[in-house]
């Protein structure tokens, strides 16, 4: 099987990798680029654990081929904190204990960051609908929603 | 699996025509990748449509909207003018999957995947939408209702690709709507989907198209049901007749999401509710 050479940008870094055309972006990130933040829950677009941004659009990386990353800019959970400084969403998730096992957390952080960039003042209903494709088996969602609403409030006050 | 990125529809057609084996086109990939990953279908040749010029464009002409075959649902809902003219199509597209899926899923993929429960298809049929198909013999234009011919099957011939979706421009006094029934509030497959598009004059319906999804091997255009509301102000009697015709047209499957009896009943209920929303939108749309 011929491998394809892909040039892409991940969290602002220009990177390249070789991949089989059947390989997903999720596999390329995890196995070729050693970025294991994005998780595989289902592999079929249902759980959102693999959420990343592709040219600023929230997508499931399990439903994107590695070769489709050519020339694109990808954002993963690894790019959310700035060095040692956690992103406000990450801080609030800890404060509100919005995670238990943590498998869903990278996807939820990427998804909610994308939401707040698009809509800094979402209602609780809007947050819940936005996150309908991010499943969590542990928290019961309530703490996640509270952490997101709290972050949004803080970010609005700060700006 | 070979992966190709043609730069034109002609090139895509040629690739599809000359290659043997299983051929798939890649738009948003939300069906293609699920099938690939679950070993249902591994294409021999995968043709990525996203590098063709104009496939990401939504173009407004004097007499029609032209939507590119790689425009995602999210891009459609963000287009204010399109969303205002065709709220029914936008609400159907918005129902597809999660935020993540909507960032990728396209009308072209929803239609060509051939699922009888595809949400956008009834809304396109009610809208009298057409598609351009580019093939070895050139370009032809057909109605959306003539694309699906059975579960997973379309009328596209070897080497043919969808090259654009055409929606009529809206005039005043028109409205459309789409409703679906699912067992939960998000992320599920339609048990029944219903779309209505209509035009009124002095509050009387003068034109209507009604379409149902998920109740037969393909989405249905219900001419008899539409006739029951044309000439009416959508009074209760007209609504009852509409519901009867909608239920009569059903030929559904029995599965865990709904029995035949349930789907047949819900089709009637949804037809009434959808018609009312479309009618109210037409009245507001002066
Ligand atoms: C989690 C999840 C939830 C979903 N929920 C829904 C839902 O609620 N309702 C619903 O209707 N669907 C749903 N889907 C299915 C899917 O998202 C839709 O059918 C979507 O519109 C497919 O579009 P796409 O661009 O991703 O298609 P792709 O996967 O790229 O292609 C689908 C098919 O269309 C063909 N094709 C694509 N472009 C062309 C072209 N230009 N010419 C000819 N053939 C072409 C391909 O060969 C393939 O067979 C869901 C999927 C997932 C993963
Ligand atoms: S792993 Fe991608 S959505 Fe579940
Ligand atoms: S914290 Fe375990 S799945 Fe969400």
Keywords:
heterodimer; A: 159 residues; alpha+beta; Ubiquitin-like (UB roll); DNA polymerase, domain 1; 2 domains; 5-stranded mixed β-sheet; 5 strands; 34% helix; globular; B: 286 residues; Enolase-like, domain 1; 5-stranded antiparallel β-sheet; 4-stranded antiparallel β-sheet; 11 helices; 14 strands; 35% helix; binds flavin-adenine dinucleotide; binds FE2/S2 (inorganic) cluster
Task: Please report the number of helical segments of chain A.
Answer: 5
Radius of gyration of chain B: 19 Å
What proportion of the residues of chain A form beta strands (DSSP E)? 15-25%
What ligands does this structure carry? Answer: flavin-adenine dinucleotide, FE2/S2 (inorganic) cluster
CATH superfamily of the domain at 174-284 in chain B: CO dehydrogenase flavoprotein, C-terminal domain
Number of helix segments of chain B?
11
The tally of strands of chain B reads 14
User: For the largest beta sheet of chain A, what order do the strands appear in spatially?
Assistant: 2-1-5-3-4
Any idea what the shape of chain A is? globular
CATH class membership of the largest domain in chain A:
Alpha Beta
Number of strands of chain A: 5
Which sequence of SSEs, written as H and E, runs from N to C of chain A? EEHEEEHHHH
By secondary-structure content and strand pairing, the structural class of chain A works out as: alpha+beta
Element order of chain B: H for helix, E for strand: EHEHEEEHHHHHHEEEEEEEEEHHH
Question: How many structural units, i.e. domains of chain A?
Answer: 2
> Which residue ranges of chain A are poorly predicted, with pLDDT under 50 across at least 5 consecutive positions?
none
Enter the CATH topology name of the largest domain in chain A. Answer: Ubiquitin-like (UB roll)
- What is the largest interface, and how many residues per chain? A-B, 29 and 27 residues
